[in-house]
């Protein structure tokens, strides 16, 4: 007990590990963005939009075992990137 | 012909202006002819960092409005004959300047300087697009915190999208706290570099010297610190821009042994 008084309290661990994991998750997510012009012209995308929505809905519904009506898909463009926003409603 | 660099970041307050001023001074004190352009329209801080705020006659807005030429609007630094500043306008908004204006301004100055450093506003909106329009290379500044690093990642993506090759984008990590890294409470330079995947141009340890120098309006590399401490780090960065191979580990060596010196300084100082 006497010697315990002088012993330095050991920290569980620093916050670096959490920071590193979170950074990797954020950066990896962003790296998947693809500039629109490198894929297809905007007009072509407009024509195939519904088809893309259908495919995403079907994939997400199967993956999360929900009805397709519970999957909402939206497209937004930010600085030359197409952002696909998918909301899944779980009951 | 000048090498044109934009000094940029995603997050504000990471130290772009201080870094631009100090790299500019370090290059100019080595005989290079350097022009610093403050593209942070509406805020105008580079002149204050350089101690030139009372000498500004014309701003970048006067050049855009063709009242004066870019060369006529330049202000020479008090101590360094080879260092010039094109100041931002405080009354203007970013919308008053276009990427084409910036290209014209840099085009006019291109043949007259060895280096042109453009201090960009933070963020990815119009001001950012103006600042990068005429730059061939970029220095992305981040601090070791997550929001600054993730925003830097976004900026790197936009620079690449704008056609800048990965080899032309280099990273500076500012306000690096070595003691926190040792404690395991801060991301290491390897963690940051691994995630951003660009070359490291320099690591600037957190330092009170920079604040003191900015208070005086004298960049730290001119504040009687040449060759020492944090000034040495800016000098290393300038030399790397000139193509010299200096290990980034040298930036951190300026801090080595400082702990014990600081301890004795504090012990014997009064007040």
Q: Strand tally of chain B, please?
A: 8
> How much helical structure, as a percent, in the residues of chain A?
40-55%
Which pair of chains forms the biggest interface, and how many residues does each contribute?
A: A-B, 18 and 20 residues
- Share of helical residues of chain B: 40-55%
For the biggest sheet of chain B, the summary is: 8 strands, mixed
The oligomeric state of the chains shown is heterodimer
Report the sheet with the most strands of chain A, covering strand number, pairing sense and barrel closure: 2 strands, antiparallel
CATH superfamily of chain B: P-loop containing nucleotide triphosphate hydrolases
Highest CATH level, the class of chain B: Alpha Beta
Summed up, the helix count of chain A is: 3
- Fraction in beta strands of chain B: 15-25%
The ordered string of helix (H) and strand (E) elements of chain A is HHHEE
Report low-confidence residues of chain B grouped into runs of 5 or more.
none
How many helical elements of chain B?
Answer: 13
Count of extended strands of chain A: 2
What count of domains describes the coordinates of chain A? Answer: 1
Using the alpha-carbon principal axes, give the shape of chain B: globular
Structural class of chain B: alpha/beta
Mean pLDDT of chain A: 78
GO cellular component, one term (chain B): cytoplasmic side of plasma membrane
InterPro entries (chain B): CobQ/CobB/MinD/ParA_Nub-bd_dom (IPR002586), MinD (IPR010223), MinD_FleN (IPR025501), P-loop_NTPase (IPR027417), ParA/MinD_ATPase (IPR050625)
Organism (chain B): Kosmotoga pacifica
Protein name (chain B): Septum site-determining protein MinD
Overview of the molecule:
The complex is a heterodimer of chains A (91) and B (271). Chain A is of the alpha+beta class. Chain A has one domain (13-88). Helices cover 48% and strands 18% of the residues of chain A. In chain A, a hairpin with a 2-residue loop joins strand 1 (71-78) and strand 2. Chain A is elongated. Chain A starts with a helix and ends with a strand. Chain B has 271 residues and is α/β, with parallel strands linked by helices. Chain B has a single domain (3-269), classed as 3-Layer(aba) Sandwich (Rossmann fold). Chain B has helices at 16-28, 46-49, 60-64, 70-73, 99-109, 126-132, 146-161, 178-183, 189-196, 208-216, 229-241, 249-253, 258-268; strands spanning 3-8, 34-38, 75-76, 83-86, 115-119, 137-142, 169-176, 199-205. The chains are: A alpha+beta (91), B alpha/beta (271). Chain A binds chain B through residues 11, 13-17, 19-20, 22-24, 26-27, 30, 33, 35, 79-80, and chain B through 124, 146, 149-150, 153-154, 157-158, 161, 181, 183-188, 191-192, 195-196. Chain A: Residues 1-21 are annotated as: Disordered. Chain A: One of its GO terms (biological process) is cell division. Chain A: It comes from Kosmotoga pacifica. Chain A: InterPro entries: MinE, MinE_sf.
